[in-house]
Amino acid sequence: MKKLESTKRIPVDSVLRVYKKGFGYSRLTIIDNNDRYMATLSDEDFYNSIPDGSSIEAYLWVEDVASYEFSCTITGRITQGERILFLSHTEEIRRNEERLCLTAQVSVPFQFFIFNSKKIEKSFTSEEIKFHTGLITEMSDREMVFTCTDNLSAVSLLYGHIHVFDEDVEIVGKYEERGEGTYLVRLTGMSERDRGKVLDYIFSVYRE
């Protein structure tokens, strides 16, 4: 994608992180974008809480390009069927070369095992897998900080699970030690579906 100079150029299927004071964060998925409006698919809480005419702050990350921030207005909605909100366009867009991840302080237990890159193409036997128990203390949709009392190798790969809203989410990525018993894992192997679940959980932490 070329440098974004208008919201009219945001591709369909893009996900906007939106914020409204008094509510908090949510995400909207663009399902149509034309010269008149952006049509977005909303979750139930945001749809029912934010009235037409409301101004919201939006954030868009374009992978390997840049992040963009802008303000827009909810101009209307579809009241039957799927929860669809219509947003106004703007050319007042702020560009940032860095990804601005929303990070939440949490306390989420999870179980995982570690392996090195040489074994990625190999299958594991139950005898080779040693499970560890950790506690996630900081969470974003791109990386997490966790603590673990077990002695882990300095740099390796990790596979585990957490429960978010009673759903199972896979945690896959490369981790490194940040301090004694504290580790940072970059979620390079997470599916977009699971990434969305993590974002929804983070938004719930910030719900106002």
What does the radius of gyration come to? Answer: 20 Å
Main sheet properties: 6 strands, antiparallel, barrel
Helix content: under 10%
Shape: elongated
What's the count of strands? 13
Q: What is the terminal separation in angstroms?
A: 34 Å
Mean pLDDT: 88
CATH topology of the largest domain: Thrombin, subunit H
The CATH architecture term of the largest domain is Beta Barrel
Q: Look at the structure and name the CATH superfamily of the largest domain.
A: predicted glycosyltransferase like domains
Secondary-structure element string: EEEHEEEEEEEEEEH
Q: Low-confidence parts lasting 5 or more residues at pLDDT below 50?
A: none
General description of the model:
Helix content is 10%, strand content 49%. The longest helix is centred in the C-terminal third of the chain and has 14 residues, at 192-205. With 208 residues, it is mostly beta strands. The protein has a 6-stranded antiparallel beta barrel. Strands 8-9-10-13-12-11 form a 6-stranded antiparallel barrel.
Question: Descriptors for this entry?
Answer:
single chain, 208 residues, mainly beta, Pnp Oxidase, Chain A, Thrombin, subunit H, 2 domains, six-stranded antiparallel β-barrel, 2 helices, elongated
